[in-house]
Specification:
about 10% strand
Length: about 290
Amino acid sequence: MVREPTDAELRRERELQGRLHHRTRNDTGCMRPLLTNREAGDLQQRIADMRERVRARDAAERAAWTGTCYDCRDTGIAAGSLMKTCDCACGRALAAERLMAASRTIFADANIPPRCRDFTLDSYPSQEIEAYGKLQDFLSEWDSHKNLILFGSYGTGKTGLLVGALRAICDRYALSGRRVQFTTGADLLDELRHGYEDGTHNVTLRRVKTVALLAIDDLGAEKPSEWVLERLYVIVNARYEAMLPTFITTNYDLDELAGRIGERVFERLIETCKKFEVDGPNLRRRRHG
């Protein structure tokens, strides 16, 4: 059986190996080696022997290993790094688990109301409508910049489609550091109004102007006062200039929406936007009927 080098031997070999790469000056100022040729040859041979012992030990351990992956010892973690995953089945499973956890964190921080939190595209109850298929295509081809408008009558499931879309995008944003925020048009404007009183107005405004994806449900329901139009313009224009996407739902058709939020806001939303009419049955009546 091959004897493994002791810690003292390993330290000694490292010290000697280091001496191979150092020189010192003699009395004449010329460089001379610290080791003679014979000493250097002996040291190199000992290093080669030690490396061979290490290779033999590794080969024996690998041959005796009964798990799935010897390199990561079935932990899924790549050798020498706690963050990188191994390129094996365990590593791929761990990477997928990390992505799912990161996606769940982004979604949990998105301010989705409890009533909507369990909505998914797979569980959407009216998948036969045209808007459902178009939204699926939009998400598969989405370039991380285009806006989205879902419009249609009350109760047709626009919010469900929006939350389902956000859940899919959270998967895409996993581990990227990007965030999503959900709000309603009325809640957003109320938060900005109250911010004048408690000093949080600028903080709120900065957040909605810079978040990676802003989703505004039921936009246009608020009365279009001069202040409302001005605040919406500040937010949408900042996101337009930064090429940050904004997803909205509205109960108005597009011409009515333009009148409710102002032409300047509407034009910036519509320029790089996909617009889908959600014209299915009233899901609230179906649920309670």
